[in-house]
Design brief:
By secondary structure, the chain is mainly alpha-helical. It is built from six helices and no strands.
């Protein structure tokens, strides 16, 4: 479940992103790097982590 900005702390959101987009060191089978245009998901979702932008809005931007 994605932590809601209003009901979660910055630390909880950061932990969620860290766990959800964990690098498995196998780019051919993972695809996270390609999906986020070779950017670290922690950077991509920084606004979500900071509580200024919705997770789904950011995700939709990269689809």
């Amino acid at each position: 479940m994605i932590p809601d900005i209003e009901n979660s702390t910055k630390e909880e959101r950061e932990e969620y992103i860290r766990n959800r987009f964990r690098c498995i060191s196998d780019c051919d089978s993972c695809g996270i790097c390609t999906m986020y245009r070779n950017q670290d998901p922690m950077h991509v979702y920084q606004e979500y982590i900071n509580g200024t932008r919705n997770f789904m809005d950011i995700t939709a931007e990269y689809r």
